[in-house]
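Pasting as-is:
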Amino acid sequence: MKNKKKDLSISIYLLLFIVSVIIVVVLLLTISFRQVLKDSLLSVAQTNSEQSVTQVLNTIENYSNDIVNKMKSMSLIINESTDTFNIKEQMETMVNINEDIVSIIIYDMEGNILDYQSNTPLKTDFNQNLSFDKRLFNSNNEYVITSPHVQNLFDGEYPWVVTVCQKQWSSSHDKLVYVAMDIRFVSIARYIDDVGIGEHGYCFIVNKNDDLVYHPLQQLIYLDVKKEKIDEVISYREGNTINDGVIYTVKDVSKFDWRVVGVSYVDELVDDRAITAIEIIIIIALVVMIFAIIILFVLSNKLTKPVRSLVDAMSIFEKNAVDFKYTPVRGASEFNKLSSSFEHMVIQIQELMDKVKKEEVALRKTELKALQAQINPHFLYNTLDSIQWMCEEEKTEDAITMVGALAQLFRISISKGYELIPIEKEIQHAKNYLVIQSYRYKDQFTYCFDIDEEVLPYLCNKITIQPIIENALYHGISRMVDEGEILISVHKVNDDIIIKIKDNGVGMSEEQVESILKKERTDSKGIGVKNVNDRIKIYFGDDYGIVVESELDVGTMITIKIPAVMEDRYSV
């Protein structure tokens, strides 16, 4: 006789399974998550860099707009006024009220000073006027701006400025002139110095002639200690460019030929964080693995015996559910509860199996005509068939829920012959219907109720909501590929109750919407909607009833309006 291979215990299987899963998950995360995380962090880093550069750009744009506005104001005076005293007075006023303006100078086309205004006197001799650049001033641009430089024309002050110039006609001098403003650059420089992107990132400004306008490390660049790829940056398009592990973010200044460039580093913003995240994942996985092993060894003895007993009982119950007698097993408190629940479930299933048989007979004999008008026999057949299948497949909890919902569905639909029932019961009727359908159309749709508690005692026609939901399921959601959704809301508005049933099904055309409430009983579609509408209008009058709104491939919303009443004071 051959020796049987010894089976491993549940705890060993669980231990091997959990350890294997954790190892596989850690390996997969290490391989795939690193790149995903790196891409995500890179996207975040680029976004942060772009935001920082945009802030700098906005500051410079405001700065340039302010400069241009001041230049426009001064140029207009010079262009239109022939009174040199008035021009001088206006120049003096502008310099005095604007701290950023160091001087306003009017040059002829050769660079000779025709007029000026500053708070300090003009030098009688200077080697070179650093604020005058004829080649730049003579361009076709409306406004031109120089790179930052030291202003050396006036005694006692050597401010760092940019010169903004406009070529135009001067009425007082009767010829073309250059109107130039020397504007302090120190406020922009300080702002750029304070901008940081990551730990070592920074911003700088270049112009489109490959000239460096401003750099926080300008002195080191001039001393050739630090290198900056200005010629490459000029060729980059606006936005983000990654080159040799460096993220360059470029934005153009609209008024001048400047570019704001943000520099950040991939390794400090992305790689270091990705490595840290993976290390954390590995550590957590190891800790989880250790705890899982300890817990499994502790619980193995408590779990194995009750589990085996319960499995054996289920196997016997599967073979002979009618005559099965269950003896509860004892173990941990959770297994005691599970055993008791199984015992209760066995009793309920046995009772329900008998009850279903009796109800099938009773349903065929009582109020057949009313039930045929209210519940689709095909729906009833499929529901009972689903219950039978669930019982055969030991889906006992689902069968219990479905049978209970079906029983309540019939109970409420009959309602002792009353036409009006409380909204609370009508909602329960709809919920029972949806419970049944959710089992029949597994994972095909979801539903949600939004009910105002104060409306529950008010009355409504029985079987008002269920036919609308049925219509939404059969003619809207059942034709969908994606998951359907049904939303039911009931609220009190002034003296009326408003019930809305909304779905995201295939919807209807305008012609279908117009005809749905006009269908005759011989029609195959929409009869439930018309039936509800007719009963409401007969009972409450033409001011109440149904409004249908629908759009193809979007969905349908049906609004039901009834009066808010708590007693049956209407008669047919």
